[in-house]
């Protein structure tokens, strides 16, 4: 039998109880889901029983058109509906791309998204990393792959800047490896900036997107943007893994975008997340000034460094009912680290302050922490 | 790059147009979907925004409880909620079971479900078959697997009888291979008989089920029933492939079963499908008496044998806008065959008669076919 381990994050999510203040998951704030509008869309969709029937492996046409339009008009990356494959959450994209195109070897950023690591490990892939771009150039070739997040990388929150995007594209065009670019957070820049993906500069690429962070994750609807030839090849894997993504959920999202303005909603999400991020940053600065971090420009996490091993600290934190993710689990080689990731989107202001005070007490049990209103 | 081919059925489904009378898919009748009741359930579920949030990899607890109850009370197979893993359609179960447990070698029935073949081929598995039970006994061992449908096998519609179930269980208990039993049609016996699965007689087994044929496929909700130890191991693969199945769709089905009687609905489906099957059988007997088949006791297909190669016939049939599936594609070794599968659930009585008349004309262009009312 094969040996597989559950992801540490999913284990934490399963372990948290109602007392836990959790900064661990990557959960968006459910109070921001556009439930009222989605209800309108859902009831409209239910007028046609075909919304509950089997449908095409590539995905619902209207939805693919709308996603293509986002690429063309928002990402400055001309795209048509035949270049979009709908997936069951963007998590499934890892599996489909790897099954269809990748051999053994894959390069990732260090640290990187834990879900990508899980998906590739289950496929027995050989996951590797690199130290700098020169190093990367020596390692890529036409049969291996490179996975990266360009915008608000999970976990670090970093953005690959324009100059570096061009450098990466230059390397890719020279080495001709498969490039997988994850855009899960690309539309959540706090100032509304939308950057052109590296994939727009390189043809042998796959750009992954998702409705999970901009509408709601419970639908499990994501997508892959790639050239048509690749989409056609991936459909074989797509139908093998789950035939197609829920017709119902695709049609609801399609109808929601027919009737309502998705980008008006995203504006609201950005604004709310920005204020949560700022509040968490202020709490860290006030209660745990030794925690070193930079305020992110977007996304859902604050990433920083403690003065001590974060894996041990995370275990102790669970005992005082606070959950966060130590960076160790984001490294493909499981290296020790003082760094840690804190999600700020799924907690109230009160919980953010309470949680960080609990952590501060854990770190300095003899110092009395004074709780004051920050804002 | 890997070489993968799209399934013939999905290609047909993509090729059919509004003129085509299609007996090709395995589509349930969308006019039977309990849309009104599902609408009530959906609107109830939407009162809680957590229906659109991420959820646990194993699946929504209430739904797992209800599925476990079906095993215990209907299949005479005692089961609790920890022995159920929710999957994104039962198609995903192939992928998850194989990734978690199987090595290279897998035995299947001949012919067998094409979706199983696709799922295993994408994983580069070595698919084999056997001629009779003695032969099977010589081939199974503790590291390989055996996949079978016991009830209304897709495509043949055959049922493995009680005596043979016990024989298979005896072999399994002796050889200790992994056993994957597909129950997609188990609840659609036209007389309401529900048979105890072979899995109930053998511990190293996985029983797959689905809401696709008994409620609606557009939700993409299926499940695996296995012992808890296996479920825990499969959760690693489940979270790697798509984190979890749509929270929304799981909660709708859970609420639907809270508020309405699933088995009252299934009764309606059985009755309707039985009358469609009988009508198609009468049409074959009348217009194409040379087509040899047995009336199935359940499921969604009539399977039989022409006097000529069915693959060639299926191609010609598409030209007169009739689609059905030649048996060749259900054989893992792609062997030639005169046999073919006809779906009767997704056509009207009128379409069934029209389609078979068109086929009859194709087979005997010089005979004048008289269209008369059969019923």
How would you describe the overall organization of this protein?
Two copies of one chain form a homodimer. In chain A, a hairpin with a 7-residue loop joins strand 9 (292-293) and strand 10. In chain A, the strands form three sheets. Chain A has a seven-stranded mixed β-sheet with strand order 2-8-7-6-5-3-4, sandwiched between helices. A four-stranded antiparallel β-sheet of chain A has the order 9-10-13-12, with helices on one face. A two-stranded parallel sheet of chain A has the order 1-11. The first copy, chain A, contains twelve helices and 13 strands. Chain A folds into two domains: 8-33 and 264-363, Aspartate Aminotransferase, domain 1, CATH 3.90.1150; 53-259, 3-Layer(aba) Sandwich (Aspartate Aminotransferase, domain 2), CATH 3.40.640.10. The radius of gyration of chain A is 21 Å and the shape is globular. Chain A has 375 residues and is α/β, with parallel strands linked by helices. Chains A and B meet through helix 1, helix 2, helix 4, helix 5 and helix 8 of A and helix 1, helix 2, helix 4, helix 5 and helix 8 of B.
